[in-house]
Amino acid sequence: MFDSPFVRRVAVSMNLLKIPFEHRNWSVGKDFELIRQFNPLGRVPTLVQPDGETLIESAAILDFLDDSAGPDRALTPQSGAPRREVLRLTAIATGAAEKGVAQVYEVAFRPPEKRYPPWVDRCRAQMHAALTELDRASTVRAGDWLIGDRMTQADITATCVYTFLADALNIDRAAYPGLAAIVERCEGMPEFAAIKAEWIAPGEPA
Asked: Is there a single domain that holds both residue 116 and residue 183?
């Protein structure tokens, strides 16, 4: 489902690369066994190609999409410092998403009496540290994007993660103005607008 920032960043990337796809709106909760038919881990995203080959994990799928699109259209640079910086910021963004998901799961799946506040606090601190670094990166340069003069996977992933965290954990959208400006720019594009979350897990203010 598109409430997952990992699923959403793949779908948005496919839209931007003009790669058509069929979306199965399956939940890792109630549709776990359906997903396991294609991914033994029962995780998403999972990309099933026309020949039946299955790719799992969003990073591997995005690498495949870039390879299919070619170096001129790829959303991650092929080599050098720009590639390393895109990968660095993308890793920071996915790390923030993972810490956000951990907080959501703590509320959604664990009974209140079994929650461990120090663990939640640690996840929250890591999440906000990652967002702070993304915000810093967005203000270091005066351009419209995190790196270079065009959108990269860093912008796509940061946007999907920020929107997920803002919706699921009620983070303060004004706390990261540089990052928020990039997110607003991306979310205004039709390729993002067409891929919206249909369900957001319950969460607590971050």
From this structure: yes
